[in-house]
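Lab channel / #folding
Pinned by the channel admin:
"Please post every new chain as: sequence first, then the structure tokens as a reply. Keep commentary short and put observations after the output so the thread stays searchable."

First post following the new format, from NK:
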Amino acid sequence: MNIFPNLQGPKRTAAQAAGVVFIMGSLAWASVPFYDWFCRVTGFGGATNVVAEGSDVVLDQTITIRFDASLERDMPWTFKPEVREMEIRIGETGLAFYEAHNPLDVPIAGTASYNVTPYEAGAFFDKIHCFCFEEQILQPGETVMMPVNFFVDPAIVDDREGQYVHTITLSYTFYEIDLPEEYQQAALTNVAPSAIETQQ
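Reply from TO:
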């Protein structure tokens, strides 16, 4: 089927090439949110699940959770887990904290990406609440403790690969993002963002 019936020779070839570039670009753009959705649903690539509440089944079997923290290059914060590892029962709700500090004299906004390893554990690692769901803004010199509530789905013990997982590592990487407009205005006028919001 000729999708360029009125074009001949080099013009038709150029139009076809442009069409291919457009289609491939569209697929590449669409693949990013699709891949993200696929990872979150299936746990593929170490993506975790998001749930509204904890498990109603808690096993006697335990599993070790390790916590890892890193920063994207040029992110000025310091960032670390409060504890490096904990042992919990499978199905039990765990609570861990990560500490972030802004050493600069200006506010810095950040957001976190995350995954778990081994990758096959992603489908069984359920988050109830996590600081990674929201952008974080730290004021100059501010230090915050950021919580994450989670549990390991008891279904992991019946999974063909998951049953051999005894340690799961939860990793976060923080990277800098643009400050909201009101914070940018505050930086220019030296007025607190709360005062700007009050005036609006």
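NK: The chain has two domains: 6-42, 47-183.
TO: also worth noting, Residues 24-45, 194-200 have pLDDT under 50 and may be disordered.
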